[in-house]
Design brief:
Shape of chain A: globular
Order of helices and strands of chain B: EEEEEEEEEEE
Helix content of chain A: under 10%
Number of helices of chain A: 0
Shape of chain B: globular
Number of helices of chain B: 0
Oligomer: heterodimer
Radius of gyration of chain B: 13 Å
Distance between the termini of chain B: 38 Å
Helix content of chain B: under 10%
Number of strands of chain B: 11
Largest sheet of chain B: 6 strands, mixed
Order of helices and strands of chain A: EEEEEEEEEEE
Structural class of chain B: mainly beta
Radius of gyration of chain A: 13 Å
Number of strands of chain A: 11
Chain lengths: ~110, ~110
Amino acid sequence: DTGVSQDPRHKITKRGQNVTFRCDPISEHNRLYWYRQTLGQGPEFLTYFQNEAQLEKSRLLSDRFSAERPKGSFSTLEIQRTEQGDSAMYLCASSLMGNTYEQYFGPGTRLTVT
Amino acid sequence: DQQVKQNSPSLSVQEGRISILNCDYTNSMFDYFLWYKKYPAEGPTFLISISSIKDKNEDGRFTVFLNKSAKHLSLHIVPSQPGDSAVYFCAAKVGGFKTIFGAGTRLFVKA
């Protein structure tokens, strides 16, 4: 069990550029979540996948954000035309479908928009 | 709208004593509650959980208490150890999967 991995760990980009983050969940987990965390706050839910289906998208997620999980395995989160307000830690988590609800988090990708 | 509130940003406790971390919530539809621990440069890790139909769950040194009428839950750590120093997040699940996190409480356990 290698845990949830995220790539890259850090990303610095200029305002207006597009960025893409990758998340590899624990292999047998069919649920995958994206969160955003800013300083002094807890993780904020962005979106959720069950297998390859995106079942919910937070209203926090503007049209500039898109997430995919094409084969029900890894997922990507893309931010287009980045803004300084997008600077945050982006966390990915995965879980098993069932009666347990704990999520297993990756180390996160820290995005800095200059 | 902050549905899960952790009103204490930080807590300092002596090693060996009890740590009590508190959490209040506003949404009566929450059906499952979880506590996560986070060390610097790592993602949160699951610690303990409780269903809304129970009022207590215990796992080793960690106990979570749920008071539904007060919409309040607490995490007790006994005895506290220096390795418990971390940020603790209270979280609540609503519906099938969406989880709402509090802002966290930073626990310092002094040796």
